[in-house]
Design goal:
The chain is of the alpha+beta class. Helix content is 22%, strand content 30%. Strands 1, 2, 3, 4, 5 and 6 form a six-stranded mixed β-sheet that branches. Strand 4 (77-85) and strand 5 form a beta hairpin. The longest helix is centred in the first third of the chain and has 13 residues, at 25-37. It is globular, with a radius of gyration of 13 Å. It starts with 18 loop residues before the first strand and ends in an 8-residue tail after the last strand. The relative contact order is 0.21.
Amino acid sequence: MSPKRGDDVAPPPVDDEWRIRYAETDTIKGWRELCSKAPQNTRKAYEAFRSNPRPTEPTKRHHQLRLELAFVISDGARMEHWQYEVTGGGRIWYYIDVANRTVWLDYAGLGHPKATD
């Protein structure tokens, strides 16, 4: 069965790992493309999300988005919105639900997101 919006990104978390879920249906296709074209970098992103989605020292490749993209409102809660640069153009955007230790992927793809153009 194919994953859909709201489903976990497999495999499930263990111990104190963060849960990763798809916030948007289009993200599933983008995640698969990244896994196919840039498997090592996508795996590094996956491991970063599982262990520490909000690094204390952000880098150029992994940082919170700025200005109007810096936060997302989901279920009435304001959540930090972050970006992980997988390749030169490939990006993953996600927001962090701290209360539920869940990372919600709301964009994944080989192309640069249009929202930042």
